[in-house]
Amino acid sequence: MNPRILIIYTGGTIGMVQRPDDGSLAPVNFEELSNEIPMLNKFGYKINAITLSPIIDSSNITPELWFKLAETIENNYEVYDGFVVLHGTDTMAYTASALSFMLENLNKPVIFTGSQLPIGTLRTDGKENLLTSIEIAAAVKKGKCIVPEVCIYFNSKLFRGNRSSKIDSAQFRAFESKNYPPLAKAGVEINYSCEYIRKANNDTPLKVNYKLNTNVVILKIFPGIQPLVVESIIDIPDLKGIVLESFGSGNVPEFDWFTQLINKAINKGIIVVNVSQCAGGKVQMGLYHTSKDIQKVGVVSGYDMTSEAAISKIMFLLGQGYTYNKVIKYLNTNIQGEISL
Ligand code: ASP
Q: Which of 2, 3, 212, 219 is 20 to 30 A off residue 133, Cα-Cα?
């Protein structure tokens, strides 16, 4: 049987045109977008498309739209072999990370892609990104899909979604996965690195987790950060989680006020997870003295997680209603390939 692929269009540059009133880029509907790629029919696949309303610039993404996206995949899961999600690049890594936690027991490809130039422009990168994503979503070996994961395909590389970050807004190479190798490279052929791709378990049915707790924050440390800034964040009513973006391998200022405020947060039951501002490498608490104090008061290592993965993982874990200790346990566990332990 021919592969059946569902394209889910959410918006983003790939489907944008210039608005006549002010010249800014805004998304158009899928019919206009697909008119630009008549070769879609050449695959010989059964390809359908669903547009999620409203079509957005991905800077306007919300957890409610993540739920809609997950629900669309769930409702069509049995009917299609793979899914291609057209999404703006700005927050693609956040959405792909969140979906990786929400779509438990995923056994089919969910490939996010988009472009840096709208698909209607001459030098667009959108056509190659879309066409190759469709091919990856349909790829099978011995009757099984090759990539049963939430991924980002961009500029000839397939990355694990929760390992990716947007690193460039001007080059076609918009994404990078510094701490995990690409799952595939597309040249004349698409070469899959099967040793890095998650193994599917076809016996377990898809379970979609629709609960996320958004009472969380990313706190980026910088030289000169003031006590009042940190204190104001910690005092936010109902705050449940902090992703602490530290320096280097997990280091922060050793000032007493800083340690005391982090201690105060933890005593209030706020989970504090430490990720690095560096794109590559990992948090190693205790390696330098500058991470010892926060380690002592109970900050958890985020290892080599991206901030995008960390914030969505913490939203997901808190959303499940787990106890403090269980959230800590899962932060120290590789759930969806988001950390190397
Ligand atoms: N602002 C756009 C978006 O994220 C950028 C893009 O798609 O590349 O929707």
A: 212
